[in-house]
Structure formats: C-alpha cells, structure tokens
Design brief:
The chain is α/β, with parallel strands linked by helices. The chain contains six helices and eleven strands. Bound molecules: cytidine-5'-triphosphate and the ligand C[C@](O)(CO)[C@H](O)COP(=O)(O)O.
Length: 236
C-alpha cells in the first residue's frame, strides 16, 4: 500500500451519536468521568499519542456542547458535522483526508484505549501493508438464538475463531471512503470500518488489544470506565 508517513496519522473520532442505550440527559460522550467528559478523555488519549498529528472530531449538527470545551481550540483538532448513522459520520470525517493518508477511526465512547495497543495497531498495519483493527478474542460461550424466537437457544457457536471488534481501526483513507460509500449506496448496514472493507472483498488484520478498551454503551459501563481510567492515571 501507499507511500505514507507513519508518523503523521490522522484520527477520526465519530462523536455524533445520541447514546440512546445510555438513557442519559446528554449524549453519552458528554457524561463526565472525574472533571472531564468522556469525549475529552478519549481525545486526550489520541492527542498525546506521538504518531497521531491530527484529530478530526465528528459532531452532530445539533451539538451545542463541543465548542464550549477548551479542547475544541486544540491546534491538532478539526471539527466536522456527522450524519444519521456512525458510518455516515465516519464518511463525513473522511472527506477531510486525502486518498493516500491513513485514517485511524476511534469511537468517542472508548476512552480507556491504551497507547501501546494503538502503537501496535499502527506498526502491524504499516509493516504488513494491510488495514486492521483492534479486537479481543471472545471468552464467553456464544449462543445462537432462533430468528423468530430470539430468547431461546438454537445452538452454541464454536467461538475458536470469533473476535469482538473494537477501535481504533486503521485503513487507507481513499480505500475506506470508497468502500463505505459503496456499502451505503447498496443499503448495507455497516457498524465498523472493517465491515466496509470486507464488503469490498478485503480481509483486515485482527490485532489483539486489552480487554479494558470497552465501549461505554449502557449505564453500568460508566463505573467500569471510571475504574479503568483511574487505574491508568495512577500507573502513569
Ligand atoms: N450517527 C452517529 C452515531 C454514532 N456515532 C458515534 O459512533 C460511536 C459508537 O457508536 P455507539 O456507541 O453506538 O453510540 P451511539 O450511537 O451514540 O449509541 P446508541 O446506539 O446507544 O444510540 C460513538 O462514539 C458515537 O458518538 C456517530 O458519530 N454518529
Ligand atoms: C465500531 C464498534 O465499536 C466496534 O465494536 C461498533 O461496531 C460500534 O457499534 P455501535 O452499534 O455503533 O455501538
């Protein structure tokens, strides 16, 4: 793949969701852990990674909070407006990148991501010249429910080759933009960048990450993220 500078990675942070599963008054990225919003914790992780030189934050057109945060003035941060789905928001962020750049997409809702995992993702993808994502091997027994009775087990899946996709996910910007656009044009539901690449026939690399890289999705995840972030700041 493409001759690009690996010390100039651009991150795209989709932060235009409403956090419906979180049931909170404000979109979940603006809930606070200690004195900072979840989004600020996430952005600080990316802004302090030495290979990430620019961060594009994708916010909702209705967002009246982001620009009140001091981090909005950070010189590495650019802001753009997102769309209805996460895929639309990522696509909006990608419009600000050149085709030959690397796009490192990371959920606003994953503030606990580890710097060493980001570095391993970047190194592996660049060395193998193949896009990839952080992910974890599944550790629970996986049950497949009936489609027409989805609280009853049909059978148990073999979990040997099953992984849970996390973020960041790192791809060539031009390739990702094209695949996302094609998938959306064909009405395919895309929940992560790797799925768009797979839609175009690609096979992203799976790079195992720490299990504490959780996505804050439901109310009980907040306490867990608070615990992990506190532990990380004590270990620094
Ligand atoms: N239209 C959307 C939807 C989601 N996201 C972002 O994508 C990330 C992962 O999505 P998810 O955790 O599902 O967030 P929400 O869509 O906000 O949550 P929910 O599905 O519970 O409403 C979040 O950082 C979210 O802000 C986005 O940028 N644009
Ligand atoms: C990108 C992602 O975080 C990988 O697990 C996930 O697919 C986002 O899905 P969501 O339904 O938008 O939370």
């Amino acid at each position: 793949m493409h001759n690009v500078n690996t010390n100039h990675i651009t991150a795209i942070v989709p932060a235009a969701g409403i956090g419906s599963r979180m049931n909170s008054q404000v979109p979940k990225q603006y809930l606070k852990i200690d004195s900072k919003t979840i989004l600020e914790h996430t952005l600080n992780k990316l802004l302090t990674h030495e290979q990430i030189t620019k961060v594009i934050v994708v916010i909702s057109p209705e967002d009246d909070i982001f620009n009140t945060l001091s981090i909005a003035l950070h010189d590495k941060i650019n802001v753009t407006l997102g769309g209805k789905t996460r895929a639309d928001s990522v696509l909006a962020g990608l419009q600000l990148l050149n085709d030959d750049q690397w796009a490192l997409v990371h959920d606003a809702a994953r503030p606990c991501v580890d710097h060493d995992d980001i570095t391993r993702l970047i190194t592996t993808v660049i060395n193998k010249k193949q896009g990839g994502l952080l992910a974890t091997r599944l550790s629970d027994t996986i049950k497949r429910a009936y489609q027409d009775n989805d609280t009853v087990v049909d059978y148990s899946e073999d979990r040997t080759y099953l992984w849970g996709a996390a973020t960041p996910q790192l791809f060539n910007a031009g390739e990702l933009r094209s695949c996302l656009q094609q998938a959306l044009d064909h009405g395919v539901a895309i929940t992560d960048e790797a799925s768009a690449i797979e839609y175009c026939g690609g096979h992203p690399l799976l790079i195992e990450c720490r299990r504490d890289n959780i996505k804050i999705t439901r109310p009980e995840d907040l306490a867990l993220a608070t615990f992990y972030l506190t532990k990380q700041s004590l270990n620094r």
